[in-house]
Design goal:
The protein has six helices and five strands. The longest helix has 16 residues. Helix 3 links the parallel strand 3 and strand 4. It has one domain: 3-Layer(aba) Sandwich (Rossmann fold), CATH 3.40.50. The protein starts with 8 loop residues before the first strand and ends with a helix. By secondary structure, it is of the alpha/beta class. It is about 45% helix and about 15% strand. The chain is globular and about 35 Å long. It has a five-stranded parallel sheet with strand order 2-1-3-4-5, with helices on both faces.
């Protein structure tokens, strides 16, 4: 008998209510549980309480912007492991570089992507990692032994 799979939870950190509503509806239709935070401080509080499987985060938000929220998130227990996809209209190389140093999973410019592209990016990030095949593990072990013998 198959076990029912637990729905993945996604935290949407977005201050624009209309955009947040669109993301929330699309994600729910795609089978995800959705939490919404309208600013960075609220996003951090929800993260502590719910431990979402992924965070979609805008960079320009009140109270605590996305850059600062990301920095704080990475210093919280479990915060280093949660994948974050940045969804912002800031598309400068310096903005992307600043986010990448905190280990984001992806960076999407809102005005350049469709909702289906956002959903594809989420699925790609949440896709289970493939386990190495036994043959590849054995060949890696043999190569490692050769290195040790030298």
């Amino acid at each position: 008998m198959l076990k029912p799979t637990k729905k993945k939870t996604i935290l949407v950190a977005e201050d624009d209510k209309f955009i947040a509503h669109a993301y929330r509806n699309a994600l729910k239709l795609d089978g995800y549980e959705v939490e919404w935070a309208s600013d960075g401080q609220e996003a951090l509080a929800i993260f502590k309480k719910r431990r979402p499987d992924l965070i979609l985060m805008d960079l320009v938000m009140p109270v605590l912007d996305g850059f600062t929220t990301l920095k704080h998130l990475r210093h919280q227990a479990g915060g280093r492991n949660v994948p974050v996809i940045i969804l912002s209209n800031l598309g400068q190389d310096s903005d992307i570089k600043q986010c990448r140093k905190y280990g984001i999973a992806d960076y999407l410019v809102k005005s350049n992507v469709s909702m289906s592209e956002v959903l594809q990016a989420i699925k790609k990030v949440l896709k289970p990692k493939k386990i190495l095949k036994k043959k590849k593990i054995l060949s890696t072990a043999k190569a490692f032994k050769k290195i040790i013998k030298k």
